[in-house]
Write a structure and sequence with these properties.
This protein is of the alpha/beta class. The protein has three domains: 36 residues; 30 residues, no CATH class; 259 residues, Alpha-Beta Barrel (TIM Barrel). Strands 3, 4, 5, 6, 7, 8, 9, 10 and 11 form a nine-stranded parallel beta sheet that branches. The protein is 36% helix and 13% strand.
């Protein structure tokens, strides 16, 4: 021990001179040294974070060989639909609630809407003989015994006005995408306004049951490739010209299996299958075989009418006017008058609206005046029957 202490005492530790310290600091503070040192710190921080599992926002390690469940909606358009949940591309995240397309129409003071008790807990029965089982679930089919269809079975009944000079069908699109908007539609619009429900709606069957209980006929939106495909985000269930007949058939069956109680399907955009008319022909054949009606909301859609004329068993309707609350009250009133005149001239008039709550009271008051002109608001299926 003594020898060790003696050895330590004999160790000479040089004292750094002031000039040496200054030179060392200058070397470290040079631009080149600073860049290298900073870069090294970034690399070390990244490696330490990755190894500790903090690279994931949730603090858990990610498996880069698997697609995170929250991203399935963004890539579903190119993947097998059977392997993923039905998340529309426009939402992206599975835990997000569908919201209305017109956010500016939602008033924060009208969030609590009470649905009348008589509309609650009324379930739509799946009628025997009108459905067949598929890998996706039950889908409509023509009855083998009497050729009855869902178009016949799920029409909303109404009492025809004696001496009516015309009928008007008013159709609202995008029903079901927003919980608030769904309730506002039920309470704010008069009976017999037809609803087109989105296949991306949450709890779609409950929303269909509620609408039918309030005397609103239901049609099912079926996204299809349009001329603006790639710009318009119509989601992973879209029927595409680039898919073969079997793939489009699979997507269509998937859509049709989501619920029951609808009388037909609706195209919100004019189909654009350039160079793939055979594929579009196959889609219309399926619509006809399954006894579905078809409604087109695009004013410029001439394609659907052409194919519907070839398939004469398809009950077909085409939009004639859009009524848009954003155009102002004067323009809305003018369009409603134009709609009335169409009904008086041709007996049948059809118009489409978007889910805009500020439009609902205008429609409700306008409907009360129709009987003065011997006009009547009817479900879309009734307008189709009167147009033949």
């Amino acid at each position: 021990m003594a020898s060790a202490l003696a050895f330590v005492k004999n160790i000479s530790i040089p004292r750094p001179s002031f000039s040496g310290v200054v030179e060392h600091v200058r070397s470290f503070a040079s631009l080149r040294s600073f860049v290298w040192s900073f870069g090294l710190l970034i690399v070390l921080a990244f490696l330490l974070t990755f190894q500790s599992g903090q690279f994931s926002p949730s603090g858990e390690e990610n498996d880069f060989h698997e697609i995170p469940e929250s991203l399935t909606g963004k890539v579903m358009a190119t993947l097998d639909l059977e392997q993923h949940a039905d998340i529309p591309i426009q939402y992206g995240e599975e835990n997000l609630t569908g919201s209305a397309l017109n956010h500016e129409d939602i008033s924060p003071t009208e969030q609590n809407i009470e649905i009348p008790d008589q509309f609650l807990d009324q379930k739509t029965e799946r009628q025997d003989g009108l459905f067949e089982d598929t890998p996706f679930g039950s889908v409509p089919i023509r009855s083998k015994s009497d050729n009855k269809t869902v178009f016949d079975a799920y029409q909303i009944p109404y009492v025809p006005l004696a001496g009516a000079r015309g009928v008007i069908a008013l159709v609202m699109v995008d029903y079901g995408l927003s919980e608030h908007m769904s309730k506002a539609s039920i309470t704010g619009l008069p009976p017999y306004v037809t609803f087109v429900t989105s296949p991306y709606s949450r709890e779609i069957q409950d929303k269909i049951d509620l609408a039918r209980a309030a005397s609103h006929e239901i049609w099912l939106d079926t996204p299809i490739q349009s001329k603006n495909f790639g710009l318009d985000d119509t989601g992973p269930l879209t029927l595409l010209s680039g898919l073969n007949d079997e793939q489009n058939h699979t997507r269509l069956l998937h859509i049709l299996s989501l619920a029951h109680g609808y009388v037909g399907i609706s195209f919100l955009n004019s189909p654009a299958f350039q160079g793939a008319d055979k594929g579009l022909e196959n889609i219309f054949s399926i619509i006809e075989q399954r006894g579905l009606g078809l409604a087109s909301s695009d004013l410029d859609d001439g394609i659907s009418a052409v194919f519907a004329n070839r398939h004469t068993k398809i009950p077909f309707a085409k939009n004639q006017l859009w009524i848009d609350a954003n155009q102002g009250n004067l323009e809305v009133e003018r369009t409603l008058k134009q709609l009335e005149q169409k009904a008086l001239n041709n007996y049948v008039a059809i118009a489409f609206i978007k889910p805009q709550p500020k439009l609902f009271p205008v429609i409700k008051e306008w409907e009360k005046t129709l009987s003065q002109q011997s006009l009547q608001l009817v479900p879309l299926s009734a307008a189709i029957k009167h147009s033949k």
